[in-house]
Amino acid sequence: MENKKKYVYYMQPSMSDEMELMLGEANATSKSDFINIAVRFYLDYLHNKKSVDFISPMLARTIKSEVESVEKNVSEMLYKLAVEQSKLTVALAMNGEYERFDYDKLNEYCAQTVAENNGVIDFKEANYYKELYNG
Predict the structure, then answer these.
(1) Which of 29, 44, 102, 103 has CB 3.0 to 4.6 Å from 98, enough for a Cys bridge?
(2) Contact, 41 vs 54, CB < 8 A?
(3) Taking Cα atoms as reference points, which of 128, 96, 98, 92 lies closest to residue 112?
């Protein structure tokens, strides 16, 4: 690390007060440290001529978090829809030949089938449940 040299610069008192309030936010230990961090940031900005490089990591983390949350919610809803579609397919294959108390067994069977087949619902498989039910 390079040795530091003392410089004297003029600054508005209100800016100095604000800088003192923001020392913790900048992870600076002193006003001098704060100024070094701020000047390094601005110099990097000028060299790159873009603010995107400074904002993008924070923005990327936020977007990733939101996308993961939405993905989880959409995945859960798609799974539930696939199970309902599977139940409808089985009910159609059975031509309504099931009683109300069989609903729990049907739901369990369809949830297991959807999970095993990654949501792919096959009418032929629905006939298997009919045979299982009647057999």
Answers:
(1) 102
(2) yes
(3) 128
Q: Are 31 and 19 in contact (CB under 8 A)?
A: yes
Provide the domain count of the chain: 1
**d(Cα 32, Cα 86) in Å, to the nearest integer?**
67
pLDDT tens-digit readout, 68-125: 888 888 888 888 888 888 878 777 777 766 665 577 777 787 788 778 777 666 666 6
Residue 119 is assigned to a structural domain of this protein: yes
Residue 10: inside a domain, yes or no?
no
- Residue 52: pLDDT above 70? no
The parent domain of residue 134 ranges over: 72-135
pTM score, whole prediction: 0.43
Residue 42 lies in a domain: no
